[in-house]
Amino acid sequence: MRRTGVATLACLALTALAAGCGLGSGDAASGDDDEIVIGISLPLTGDFSEPGKGVQRGYEAWADYVNANGGLLGKDVRLVILDDQSNADRVASDYERLINQENVDLIFGPFSTRLVVPAAQVAQDYGFLFVEPAGAADEVFEQGFDNLFYAAPAVADDHYNLLAEHILAMPEDQRPQTAAYATMDDPFAQGTAYGLRDKLAAAGIETVVDEVYPPNTTDFSSIAAQIADSDADIVVGGTQYQDAVNLIVSLRQLGYQPDLAAFSTAPTNPEFPEAIGSQTEGIISPTGYTPDATFEENVAFVEHFTEMHGHAPSEDEANAWTTGEVVAAAVEAAECADPSPECQQELIDFLRDATVDTVVGPLSWDPEGRPQSAHLIQQYVDGEIRIVMPSDAAEAELIYPKPAW
Amino acid sequence: MSGSLLLQTLILGVLLGGLYALLAAGLTLYFGVMRVVMIAHSAFLILAAYLAWFFHQQTGLDPLLSLAVTVPLFFVVGYLMQRGLISRLRPATLTMMSVLLTFAIALAIEGMLGFLFTGTQRRIQLGYSGSSIEFFGARIAVVKLIAFGLAAAALVALFLLLKMTRFGQALRATIQHPEAARLLGVNTDRIAGFGFGLGLATAAIGGTALALDSTIYPSLHWHWIGPLMAIIVVGGLGSIPGAAAAALLLGVTQSLLQLPLGTTWAQTVFYVALFATLLVRPQGFFGGRLAQRF
């Protein structure tokens, strides 16, 4: 109630500047009736500029695709994109401006947890539906937002779910008995490794090493020495990029040979095989998106995107496109796309119970907005990273135990 | 904790300490010769690492061969930098202003590397990057051994140069008492330029050694400059043997502390040592007659 008060106050203050304030803004400046205006703030400069630009490419490709295919509810889609400079204060005022001054009909989320939370708060205050392409850390879903939906397959803790199920389904005598974990002190990287650790530990697979290192660590020889000394059956890294590469090389130097080696993020990086060479064979990584996935929507997405940009899309672009698909599905079901609280509530209510087909597969959400799907599990097989789980999307058989590196 | 893990960690610590020793030697040399705090030392280190990576990527030859180019190149760059930039700072504020100047140089190098090679993290892929030698149940990685060997050879060469040659005598005289050296006919300006060049040449060797066994990216130098600064203070500003001894000691301590404390807390050993030195023995624990005058 207090929040609503603040919003109303902000709204009144802005009324002097803007044509209208939520109510009756449909016929304001941009309220042209044959187009649907979507407001977005993205980190186009600053810390998150690289992924921010990726998300921008994804949104623009989606709008282009929709307009080329008859638009949304028969209207053209127009994007208004502001630059929040990766600044959390700026992102909130950007969304205030989009809603109050630009009079947008819908909003899409920004990039990264740090910016998603303040942006979602503004959306909540104005009763807007808020679908976001990035912001997988737990804190996003613990703020009590009832308008938020994360447009990706799974939150960080669930990235390894398919792998965990697979390991736990192994016959007792083939199953790994001990596991070593090394994770960066970062909510996302830790979430992935700890999600798997907790599931395996609950099933009796003993955690023999559990090391956390600060993000600036470059020398991994001591951590590698502890893992090698424990001779754990499997090793799991909650990693980003250089940490995974340095840890793998250090482990090889110590002659450690696990049956299974899984690292988040790094193995899907195109630079990874160049850094590790032929020793990538058997390394596992969860991934939220691959252009090779055979979902009908994805085939169309990859084709359209490649035509526009000359290369296949990556995960940031895919999640942006997914955001567009999710909102579009809600708009088509509710047959409305305007900033009125009634329409926005209808959109939110629809997504609450819906399952939407997207480029990352069918998505549905829990009440806090956590997607209920799972990440694909990829593995280097014959020198190429391929999908090995789930079985209906698999391009290759899982190799276990992994060959020596 | 098993005995073999302890031995393994000890070996890793010695190997790491050797690299620290070489890198700190250059840094303490600048300070000795010129009272210059050279923030850009580790940026040159990363520059040399990038040159080694680029050389390997273009020619496919062993990155160690790039030393033939980078060592003379860095010596000349160091000489020019000292003569052209640093010697123009006012003597009264030299130490302080050199921090600003070399900070700017570090940023310029970082920006240039990012511009030329992008921020993508690079690693030299060598046939022997994962090989190791068995040593009483512990393993010594070949690349780390090569890096250690390079560091040791460069340090010994530097030591002999300073102790055995006329140039070395002149350089030490310049470090100990510039005015007296000038009265005895030493061209201290030129000697200081050469001293600076020598310091930068050690960065070329250190950077190449670093490139053998790490993933490099333009901003990596910020992770190195802190520990190195701490090492030269602990070792006694201006003292090369002091820097080497402190580097080895702190490298080993850091490695060993990772076992009970974990990586996060083990990193603080450099700064704890720095505070302790300033509290107990500000002139440094090894040598460092020089710093007493400050």
Description:
The complex is a heterodimer of chains A (405) and B (294). With 405 residues, chain A is α/β, with parallel strands linked by helices. Chain A folds into 2 domains: 2-154 and 294-363, Rossmann fold (3-Layer(aba) Sandwich), CATH 3.40.50; 158-287 and 375-393, 3-Layer(aba) Sandwich (Rossmann fold), CATH 3.40.50. Chain A has helices at 2-15, 49-68, 88-100, 113-125, 138-141, 161-168, 187-202, 221-230, 242-253, 272-276, 296-309, 315-334, 341-353, and strands at residues 35-42, 76-83, 106-107, 130-132, 148-150, 178-184, 206-213, 234-238, 260-263, 284-287, 356-358, 361-363, 376-381, 384-389. In chain A, helix 2 (49-68) packs across helix 12 (315-334). The longest helix of chain A has 20 residues, at 49-68. The N and C termini of chain A lie far apart (59 Å). Residues 1-31 of chain A have low confidence and may be disordered. Chain B is mainly alpha-helical and 294 residues long. Chain B has helices at 3-34, 41-59, 67-84, 94-117, 142-164, 166-176, 178-183, 188-212, 221-235, 240-261, 263-266, 269-280; strands spanning 132-135, 138-141. Chain B has a two-stranded antiparallel sheet with strand order 1-2. In chain B, strand 1 and strand 2 form a beta hairpin. The radius of gyration of chain B is 19 Å and the shape is globular. The mean pLDDT of chain B is 89. The chains are: A alpha/beta (405), B mainly alpha (294). The interface between A and B is medium-sized, with 34 and 36 residues.
